[in-house]
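Quick one, T. Sequence first:
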Amino acid sequence: MKPERLYGILREPHVTEKVTGVADSSNQYAFKVDISATKKEIREAVETIYDVKVENVTTLRVKGQSVRRFARVISSGKQKEWKKAYVRLQPDDRIDFTLEIK
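Structure tokens:
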């Protein structure tokens, strides 16, 4: 697979309280990924970028919510759909998302 595609698959880490708890208990991490990415591509991208071994990949599509805004004019819209991937790593591997600011 081309390196441009690998770096285009992973959009950003998805860090929430729920995901942090899952990461601590079962060594799983969540990523926002390209909506057309397959599990095999996600596995290869995580293994290449973070230099870890992936045990399992689970994906789901998050549907866009309807948004109504009540500013001066009533308007409505819809958020975009996006895809989330839960990646379980081998027991001895870890990913550190924290930034060190010096």
